[in-house]
Amino acid sequence: MQQTLKQHMAEKLDLSTAREYTKASEGKYKNYLEHIFNGQHRIYIPLELRTDELEVSPLMTKIADHIKEKGVQIDQFDYLNGKILSNKNIMNIGRLLNDDKNLQTQFMNDPMRIKDGTCEIVISRHPYDVAGMTTDRGWPSCMDIKTGKERSFVKEDIKYGTLVAYLISKNDKNINRPLSRILIKPYIKNSLDNVAYGTDIMYGIEVPFFYNTVDRWVNNNLNVDKHGIYTAHPELYRNEDAPEEVILGKVSIEDYIKGAHVNEEGYTVIPHSIRLNKDRLKALRIKTLPFVGMKVIVEGDFTCDNCNLTTLEGAPSIVKGQFDASNNQLITLEHCPKGAEHYMLYNNPTLKTLKGAPEEVNGEFNVYRCGLTTLEGAPRKVGGKFDCTGNNLISLLGAPDDIDTFNCSSCNLDNLKGCPKVIKGNFICSNNFFKDFKFGPDHVEISFICRNVPLVSLQGIPKYVGMNFILSTNLGGHRFTEDEIRKVCKVMGTVESDRVF
User: Fold this and answer.
1) Mean pLDDT, residues 3-15 taken together
2) Which of 46, 71, 105, 343 is the most exposed place for a label (fewest CB within 10 A)?
3) Which of the listed residues 97, 113, 129 is the one where a domain comes to its end?
4) What mean pLDDT, rounded, does the chain reach?
5) Do 359 and 462 fall into the same domain?
6) Cβ neighbours around 386 below 10 Å, total
7) Residue 253 and residue 244: Cα distance in Å, rounded?
8) Quick one: pLDDT at residue 12?
9) Do residues 151 and 199 both lie within one domain?
10) Residue 309 is part of which domain span?
11) Domain count within the chain
12) What is the pTM (predicted TM-score) of this model?
């Protein structure tokens, strides 16, 4: 039997607001996914606590270390049930933490240790429950219908059939005090009518069992017999941390290169951008990039950031837009594509060499926070910014000869040897250890910025700076006056010089 709106309401939204958001559905919610809901607006399912899905948290590690420091051997660690097995004896974790009341309290209140049978999940298609996803709940989000900056999208979620899943205590059937919530959003393939479903991010108490249970329910009930790549619904707001797509069944590289053609030189030309992530590579059943043995041109951007890549094998031969392989574990730039406008290679801590990089880059080349000790192999010409900030460089030998903006801050440099003599943009060399500017640039067309260095001499200072000269020395350095700087360097803009204490 279907509930009336008044029966459905708790006390979070007033009746007029509830009616306003219910109207956004145009009555469709009453029949939406009827084969799943069978005349009800809410479905209650058990929370599945699976030890194989228990992720090791910092708190778990801290507790295990504390127990070991007491001289207790841990043979088995049953964190969910609060027990350990030690020399064939079962011991209570809570009692073993009696000497650290703060740690004991954290253990007792850890949401990961929800007791079996005390919580359940309610999945609702009713507009009231969707509209109340954040409003007056225990968590903030941009979808609060009173204050959220994206609140206009709530009615779109209701219109296009977004569901909401709440984690609740078993005695809170009316969802008055939910612990967490997850939206279940429609994803589309080719048309708005070809729909699959994906789980959005979790708000409230972080309980991975909740997310995993909902995700399984979605795939086992809503995504049965669905195959292919479904993308985020174009009319709905997508949190930047939510999945861009849902990948179901078997997919192949052909699913990503629709519209491609082979040119006269034998290259497969893909006329659009491609974004690969860990889920896509998993769906393709590969651990490298997909174009191994192929000659491929991507006419848009090619993104493969945060994919746990150690190699660029299988990358396109040529990329015409931006190439982004940041946040990986690259060891080499061998197989790096040519021709990209920008190269984003930052946060690859295992990258020790730039060998394999293109000779010329029109735009930016970014290797911020990699594992570089040398710039050997860097492009010879960079038309935009060359950013090698946060590496542990011995010198700047190997830096580009022709460069726009050059940022070599925080590189532990004690000299500027290898620096190009002409910088067409800004030169930024802050947070290093050199005591003079020997081997530095002679000509900087825009600004020279050097903060927090132990400078004691202006030897090697540029002869010309087209805009501003900004210098701050630390306790190991000398404070230079504006007159001293202008006497040896033609600065066309302002001079700022001080000492950091």
Assistant:
1) 53
2) 71
3) 113
4) 90
5) yes
6) 27
7) 17
8) 60
9) yes
10) 250-323
11) 4
12) 0.66
- Lookup result for tokens 């997310």: 211
pLDDT in tens, 70-112: 888 988 888 877 888 888 889 998 889 899 989 888 888 777 6
Nearest to 366 by CA among 381, 344, 350: 344
How does pLDDT run across 473-493, given as a tens digit for each residue?
998 899 999 999 999 999 999
Q: Distance between CA 92 and CA 90 in Å, rounded?
A: 7
CA 453/CA 300 separation, integer angstroms? 41
Long-range own/partner contacts, residues 314-319 (CB < 8 A, 24 or more apart): 314/286, 314/288, 314/289, 314/290, 315/289, 315/291, 316/270, 316/291, 317/267, 317/291, 318/267
* SS3 assignment, position 19: helix
Note the pLDDT of residue 340.
Answer: 97
Question: Per the domain annotation, does 72 fall within a domain?
Answer: yes
Spatial neighbors of 347 by CB under 8 A, at least 6 apart, are: 326, 327, 328, 368, 369, 370
Q: What is the per-residue pLDDT for 501?
A: 60
Those residues whose C-beta lies under 8 Å from the C-beta of residue 154, and which sit 6 or more positions away, are 21, 130, 131, 133, 143, 145, 148
Q: Are residues 365 and 440 in the same domain?
A: yes
Residue 205, in any domain of the structure: yes
Pairing outcome for strands 191-204 and 228-232? unpaired
- Cα–Cα distance for residue pair 338/334, rounded to 1 Å: 11
Residue that is written with structure tokens 């984003």 in the block: 344
